Request: fold
Amino acid sequence: MGHAARSPGLAWWRTGGASESGASKSSVVLNSNPGSGETLLSTALHTPAQLIILDQEGRVSSHEAVVPRGPLRTQGSAAAGGGRGRSTWETMPTATSGGLSALGRAIQAEVLECRSLDELEAVLSCHTSELSYVNVSTAWWRLAKILPRRALAPGLMPTMSPDIAALVQLLVGKTLGTVHYMTLREVSNCLWSMRKLSVRLESQPHGHHLAELIEGQLLDLAEGGGLASGTHAEQIWYCFSAPSKASVYPWSDKVVSYLAAASLRHLQDWETRSVAQVCLHWGRGGIQLTAEQQETLSQAVVAGVAQQQGQDGMQQFISLDHWLTGCVLLSLMLPTATVKALHDRLLAAPELIVRELGIVEYSTTLKRVLDLGYQPAAVEAEMWRLRLLDPLLGGDGNRLSLQDLTSALLALSYVAVLVPDEGMLEAFQLCVQARRRCSREDARRMIAIKKQWGLRLTDAEYGALKRLATAS
Reply:
């Protein structure tokens, strides 16, 4: 590669013995575009070197001695993959994204290999001026994955340790300079990670500006058909549907409405689990849909439920819960046959699945079926009683889980044909007698059960439950 082949605007690394008139086989050309991160590498930087700056006409304008930051691992890249949580998919970053340079791939591999905050901080500090938009997105994702669980609870930036806050601030700044290069894959990874990290952009330097840039990039990508990927849409809506206390930013209603409409246009392109996830996020986020949009989503739910018929793996039951929760919160109208199908699959869940879900979630899912208008027949009601109460009763009363028992009794109290028998009444009395160790939610459920079944409590018992239910 001779001097005549050099392009204007490039930075030229020249390692040990190369002559200034041309590049030897140990030369490295670095593209000066910080957003794309495009870099042409012909060798790793292991020896003392010079950085030669070319002017716009391709002439050498300056050069200076540079001490390389250390060897880059340029061989081997992490394979693309995916991860699954109970709440949302994660779009696993890849070290070989289209257009990523050799230097970018090397940095990408280093970021993906980080297993601690110290390792990630070292990599980002070492390459802070060389991070491409893919590297920035992956760094967000990696930070969210390695963050200690105690810091992942819904909260604000002040709850983060100083080292985490410093990394977040660094990534916010890097995202500002690269977000306009990002595809939906990178933007969705950034948003998912910000929600996981409880980032509040309003409290970050230039956070408002970054939020506006993200909104603009999302609109551009959505207009270009970017939401055809349900996996990416899940991550975006996971971030956008956060409750106010855990919200990354008060996103524009106009942007939210536009993205919802764009998502609905692509529902038929998504996998069933993605439709279920987005339905859940919209319900939890209180997304406002028009009557026509509700009908479109309802049709997608009907199709998704039919498609999963006969599948009984854990993921299918997680999707079932997502369907039910989203539909109830969005007030969707589903055909009776679809709700019946959801009910039957739930009632027939294998014991292993029920144990994995837990009685609280299993009972809550039954309550959502009832909220959608289905009422079990007498035989079905008896089956529900056995499934929910038998695992809970008969043991040591001191070890009884009030959360489990009150959740089960509350769901059963809404089954119209089910009259509480002696065993159910005794179970309720066990809860009342254990009221001193019940939570606020336990007390609220007990009051609701009392009203549903018309049960009697002493003034002292009822007064104690009311005080617990209203305690701050």
Notes: The chain is about 55% helix and 5% strand.
